[in-house]
Amino acid sequence: GWVKPRLLLSHGAHHPSDVATQGLGKSWRLSPPFLVAFTHSSFFPFRKHALNCHRMKPALFSVLCEIKEKTVLSIRGIQEEDPPDAQLMRLDNMLLAEGVSGPEKRGRGGPMAVAATSGGCPNDNSIEHSDYRAKLSQIRQIYHSELEKYEQACSEFTTHVMNLLREQSRTRPISPKEIERMVNIIHGKFSTIQMQLKQSTCEAVMILRSRFLDARRKRRNFSKQATEVLNEYFYSHLSNPYPSEEAKEELAKKGGITVSQVSNWFGNKRIRYKKNMGKFQEEANIYAAKTAVDATNVVAQGNQANSPSTPNSGEWEPVKRPDGFFCL
DNA sequence: TAGTATGATTTAAC
DNA sequence: GTTAAATCATACTA
């Protein structure tokens, strides 16, 4: 199921101010002792106002910022910059291809189109198709809702931290650059969360897809209409039951199945008929009689008989395999 | 529930 | 590419 990505803040930070002090704390702790003295908690309640109004404050503040900046840069210099995230790009591409992100796909596309044309029973496939689409739409909805939530949370959190730091910058050496860096850190954290969301979404789509494709493999008997059409052709072309590509297309159209299903059916039928002609004799008689009745009706209507291109003259003479194996 | 029917897949030959 | 043949997996039926 769905695993809602959690807000991942490093070192157990649970509040914006924690992050603020955490981010700054490292460099702050590296500052010389005399600087720490100015910021000691017992110092503030009594001296805060005096400190802010002190004539040396601006000068001292800029020095503090400079020292801090150098310290931070020396630490950051050790750390490697993140490489461009290829995985994020892959996730984005997949979500776009699956129709989760970007404009919603309408009509036939992706695996749905395959199933909609390959199954034996079009109605059932329509149900599966709409089921797939409904579930994909659900995933899409959850994805966008979560994404929006995270973006809003990120924006609110950033504003909150920025305000907090601006407020603190009146009494602590926090430069605008530092605030910018903090904003970048927050955005980085939220990007990680977004990536987790994208990953979960991709997993959900893959699971849905595999389930759908498994369902597609389920065998369904052809409709009576399809079986009728196929059998009629088979028994009326018993001498050469190898429909041409055009004939296959026609049969597929009439039976509401695919051309490859027609090919499969004829492959199965030929081998099974050959193996046990006796079993199919009754069926053959029924279709022979049916064909005869149809032909009589056509003649009775005064039209030219629409007889099969290869009449049932008795022998199977496969053009490609003239081994007499299919003789009646 | 076992046996049978049937659509799909795989393999090998052409 | 098509096809036969074997096989698989599932649907159907008594």
Give your account of this protein's structure.
The chain is mostly helical. It has twelve helices and no strands. The protein has helices spanning 16-29, 33-39, 44-53, 57-78, 86-97, 110-118, 122-168, 176-217, 224-236, 245-255, 259-275, 277-300. Helix 6 (110-118) packs antiparallel against helix 7. It is rod-shaped and about 120 Å long. The model is unreliable at 1-41, 107-127, 304-315 and 317-328 (pLDDT under 50). It binds a DNA duplex (14 and 14 nucleotides) through helix 11. Residues 302-313 have a biased composition (Polar residues). It is found in: Nucleus. This is PBX homeobox 4. Residues 213-276 form the Homeobox domain. Residues 215-277 bind DNA.
List keywords for this structure.
328 residues; mainly alpha; 12 helices; rod-shaped; disordered N terminus; DNA-binding; transcription regulation; PBX homeobox 4
List low-confidence stretches: 1-41, 107-127, 304-315, 317-328
For the termini, the CA-CA separation is 58 Å
Global Rg: 38 Å
Category by helix and strand content? mainly alpha
Largest sheet: none
Q: What percent of the residues sit in helical stretches (DSSP H or I)?
A: 55-70%
How many strand elements?
0
Hey, roughly how much beta strand do the residues contain? under 5%
- Residue-averaged pLDDT, rounded? 69
Quaternary organisation of the protein chains: single chain
Which series of helices and strands comes N to C?
A: HHHHHHHHHHHH
What is the helix tally? 12
Shape: rod-shaped
Subcellular location: Nucleus
InterPro entries: HD, Homeodomain-like_sf, KN_HD, PBX_PBC_dom, TALE_homeobox
Main location: nucleus
Domain PBC: 19-214
